[in-house]
Amino acid sequence: MISAAIKECENATTVLENFELLGFPYPKDLKFLLVFFFLLMYLLSLSGNGLILLVVALEPHLHKPMYWFLCHLSMMDMMVSSVMLPKLITWLILDNGVISFAGCVTQLFFFHFLGCTECFLYTVMAFDRFMAICKPLHYGTIMNHRVCFCLAVGTCFAGSIHGVIHSSLTFHLPYGWRNQVNYVLCDIPAMLKLACADTSINEMVTLIDIGFVAMTCFLLILTSYVYIVSAILKIPTSQGRRRAFSTCTAHITLVVIYYIPAAYNYIRPPSQDSFDGVLVMCYSAVTPFLNPLIYTLRNKEMKDGVRKLCIRKP
């Protein structure tokens, strides 16, 4: 398979200037509904996450580490949606998925930069809940403004390193005349299928790196919640236990929604399954939309903040 792909590229003499995203198969009579759905998801994601930023900014009682990280997550979600959905909507409307070589590199970099940043951010948010519930007397001292700022910047820095590594490894490979990307965006597995070289090292690095990051973060989150649940069960009043659980359930829900499709997509051998495209759309389109919905419905302080914003006089 590899040698056949390399032979196909031997006669290519031109430098590849663009790729064509083939998207996903769908019945043509559903085009309007799909455009409407993805456009609605995109607009709701931007407006919902923007609402979180506005509420936290205007409500002084929400100026806490938990909501600082929530705002950071909202900004990441807005950017994740913007990486894929505008191009996907354009492909559906114009039936044209052409993207420049530089645009493809940029899309892959930001997709993995933002994805990895969110992965680290979910871990930091679990640590914040651990400190608030298990170490309440030291919480204000440890989770001060400087520490929160450094943790937020650290997640972005780590994510950018991750994005640079994978975009460099992927596009350092030679590409011939084949430019049709059988996917909804420029992502590592789809791009490696077009490379005119042995990609086994790239596949191994992708599996080890993404698998290591995802599993390490997941285990840290799991460990944090083992201690959190143990501490909550020791709270004497049912109201106290209920309040403590309410601050964690939204985060746990988003972690599950985020990790399941991401783990399935990368921590397994690459495939041609069109279901892969559905999964990537799940955590690129649906998860950013669910983030503000889950946090505003499951968090009393956020609900109160939204209510005050709605009745605020101009």
List the main descriptive attributes of the protein structure presented here.
3-stranded mixed β-sheet, 11 helices, mainly alpha, 314 residues, globular
Residues in β-strands, percent: under 5%
Structural class: mainly alpha
**Biggest pleated sheet:** 3 strands, mixed
Nearest-angstrom radius of gyration?
A: 22 Å
SSE map:
Elements: H1 2-10, E1 18-21, H2 31-58, H3 65-94, E2 98-100, H4 101-134, H5 136-142, H6 145-171, E3 180-181, H7 188-192, H8 200-233, H9 238-266, H10 275-298, H11 300-311
Parallel strand pairs: 1-3
Antiparallel strand pairs: 1-2
Helix pairs in contact: 2-3, 2-10, 2-11, 3-4, 3-10, 4-5, 4-6, 4-8, 4-9, 8-9, 9-10, 10-11
